[in-house]
Design a protein that fits this description.
By secondary structure, the protein is α+β, with helices and mostly antiparallel strands. It has helices at 28-37, 39-44, 79-85, 96-99, 117-120, 125-131, 186-190; strands at 15-24, 49-58, 63-72, 108-113, 144-149, 152-157, 161-167, 170-175, 179-182, 198-202, 205-208, 212-217, 223-227, 234-236. It has a 5-stranded antiparallel sheet, with no helix packed on it. Strands 2-3-1-4 form a 4-stranded antiparallel sheet, sandwiched between helices. The termini are close together.
Length: 247
Amino acid sequence: MPRVTHNLKKPPGAVLRAYGFWIQSSVREECSEYLAANTLKTFIAMPGNLRAAPLFSDLADGVTEVVILSLWESVQSIQSLNDAYGLCTPIDRLEPERKAKVLFRQPFVRQFLLSEPSELALVPPHWLWAAGYEKKDAPPRLERIVSNDGPLLHMVPIEDVLYFEAANKYVRVITALREHLVRTSLADLIDRLDPDKFWQVRRGTVVRASAITTAERQDSGNYLLTVQGLKTSLMATRQFAHLFRPM
């Protein structure tokens, strides 16, 4: 199942663009569906775009920050976005009933030339991960998971993992044969996973993409996932529905 992105390249002049705004948390899934069907499609169709993805962060008091991250081949290629939008922002193009659900805070736009170390250092790591860009000094991708069972250490090849699931201060590591438990946070683990091989499908679950055999859309907008090697299905929430759009 393809992601709603181009195949990612990392040209030397790549530019990361972040457009952020805030919404009521109650409309988070609606916002995700709208972005997948409209804004992300527009970005991805533009010449020079390498990837576009939304990032949602729940804050206090029922507020969610939304950041639309897009990766471009060069400063010149990002001009296609400026030409299309002019002085307008994605919010300016919303219908009045949708615009009313965006909280009245000043949106922000930031651009980073990723070939410049001084600019790259300013990019939050989770933005780079969501955009599929790997820093040269980032921790190496995990090749195996090490879990302990008393005096016994289990060495689990990363390709054997079907999915990861957050469990308080631990992460459950599920393979076709058994479950392992490692003491780390899912957020820290995500930083060391390849985003093209492991997809976050809900807040506390990351699935190996190649293990997903079917995704069945539910009336709620969620997707029921069949995962090779699992007897039970997994649920992907509407927030991550863009992962399962047909090309």
